[in-house]
Amino acid sequence: MARNVLVMLFDDVDTLDFCGPLEVFAITGQRATGPVPFTVTTVAERNSPPITTRSGLRVTPYYTFKNAIQADILVVPGGLGARHESNNPALVDFIGAQARRAEIVLSVCTGALLLGAAGLLDGLSATTHHGAFDELAAIAPACTVVRGQRFVDNGQIITSAGITAGLDAALYIVQRLLGLPAAQETASHMEYAWAPISA
């Protein structure tokens, strides 16, 4: 059965933060026989008016917090909007509720600030965009901030560094769940120069 990948959106989200992992999960297994391993969809607090990304792209999320499916993999991107949304109780509570039943929660870039606000990083190691290390330490003081690493795997909670690091973390998740050949095939199809690394 396919795993549900739920990609969170909010105003001023960095476009590549969510589009990179979304594309990785959406195309994995598309060229193989048999059922696809992931179904990918989006969620935001509202779907009207559309979300406007940091680069000006307007996106209409499929789900809202009120009718969202349960994620097997929850993707929490970053961007300038993550800083604002860390003070949004509805969004922070939604992340916490989803995380209780999700197999994996992946933050990209400053999405880690949202995981920190939800209390999901306490006692863990985590990374974020290099420009937000101090912010992460402030919002999640019980977390060990890791610098200079593309992503950090705590088991259920995976955090990635900035922007393009989300591609590496998503491919790593594919590798972890489906094996190295599946991840390599996805990276090859994307023509992405991916070098598998361990967490």
Please give a structural write-up.
With 199 residues, the protein is of the alpha/beta class. The chain has a single domain, classed as Class I glutamine amidotransferase (GATase) domain (Rossmann fold, 3-Layer(aba) Sandwich). Helices cover 35% and strands 19% of the residues. It is globular. The mean pLDDT is 96.
Question: Topology of this protein?
Answer:
Elements: E1 3-8, H1 15-27, E2 38-44, E3 51-52, E4 58-59, E5 63-64, E6 73-76, H2 80-85, H3 89-99, E7 104-107, H4 111-117, E8 125-126, H5 133-139, E9 144-145, E10 151-153, E11 157-160, H6 165-178, H7 180-190
Parallel strand pairs: 1-2, 1-6, 2-5, 6-7, 7-11, 8-9
Antiparallel strand pairs: 3-4, 10-11
Helix pairs in contact: 1-6, 6-7
In a nutshell, what does this entry contain?
The protein is built from seven helices and eleven strands.
CATH class: Alpha Beta
Nearest-integer average pLDDT: 96
Report the principal-axis shape. globular
Number of domains: 1
Class by alpha and beta content: alpha/beta
Q: What is the string of helix and strand elements?
A: EHEEEEEHHEHEHEEEHH
Helix content: 25-40%
Radius of gyration: 15 Å
For the biggest β-sheet, the strand order reads 5-2-1-6-7-11-10
Largest sheet: 7 strands, mixed
List keywords for this structure.
alpha/beta; Rossmann fold; seven-stranded mixed sheet; two-stranded antiparallel ribbon; globular
